[in-house]
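Problem statement: downstream parser choked on a complex file, so we are re-checking the raw output for the iron/sulfur cluster run. The parser issue turned out to be on our end (a line-ending mismatch), but while we're here, posting the original submission so the record is complete.
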Amino acid sequence: MNINKMDQPNPGIKCVVNTCHYYMTGDYCSAEKIEVQPRNATNTEETDCATFIPEARA
Ligand code: SF4
């Protein structure tokens, strides 16, 4: 899934995953859209953002 990285935050998302390619300072996500998994999750800890990509390290 190739998700566009915007040059501004997605206003509907707060995310603290600062190791993600799409993370923006201030706990924002710059992904145009995200996908959350898995189906049939029963609590918060089980759910994850499937759009996460590790930030490239120089
Ligand atoms: S893609 Fe997912 S993990 Fe990455 S910043 Fe956005 S919401 Fe957070």
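For whoever reads this later: Residues 13, 15, 17, 20, 22-23, 29, 31, 34, 49, 51-52 surround iron/sulfur cluster (CB under 6 Å).
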